[in-house]
Write a structure and sequence with these properties.
The structure is a single chain. Helix content is 23%, strand content 38%. It is of the alpha+beta class and 159 residues long. It has a single domain, classed as Nuclear Transport Factor 2, Chain: A. A 6-stranded mixed sheet has the order 2-1-6-5-4-3.
Length: 159
């Protein structure tokens, strides 16, 4: 007995509306900080470049996310659509977090995504820079989890 293929709508080719939906679903997933849940959005043979780390499958992606959220505490992320075409989406994002010593950071980045026909992310290329900030400079204050719809996005925050 074979299992049904994994499908993660919306599917490519993307329209502006479906690309916006895909970006928000990715943001919501990462804000869950659940490595198992998030890893299921990627192909079994997904390829990533995240800073200087290279990931070659879903199991490595899950392990990476587990390490990430053990280090980046109180993680809150906002993603914004930058561009899209066919089966590709480009986003810019920022997230705030602190380390185990209480030092706060805002990390800024860009990602390029490529999806398979089932809507799973096959390739993810990320460039990220970390800016130390004071706790008083934080802009992302919603309770941990999904960013509320009424919370401003990156452009509204001037980021």
């Amino acid at each position: 007995m074979s299992s049904a293929p994994e499908v993660r709508p919306p599917l490519p080719p993307f329209s502006r509306e479906s690309a916006l939906q895909k970006v928000r679903l990715a943001e919501d997933g990462w804000n869950s900080r659940d490595p198992e849940r998030v890893s299921l959005a990627y192909t079994l043979d997904t390829q990533w470049r995240n800073r200087a780390e290279f990931i070659h499958d879903r199991a490595q992606a899950k392990a990476f996310l587990t390490r990430k959220w053990a280090k980046e505490l109180d993680y809150r992320l906002i993603k914004e659509l930058w561009a899209f075409a066919d089966n590709r989406i480009a986003v810019r994002y920022a997230y705030e977090w602190h380390d185990d010593s209480g030092n706060w950071f805002r990390s800024y980045g860009n990602e390029n995504w490529e999806f398979d026909e089932q809507g799973l992310m096959a390739k993810r290329y990320a460039c990220i820079n970390d800016l130390p900030i004071k706790a008083s400079e934080r802009l992302f204050h919603w309770p941990l989890g999904r960013r509320p719809d009424e919370h401003p996005g990156l452009s509204e925050l001037g980021l």
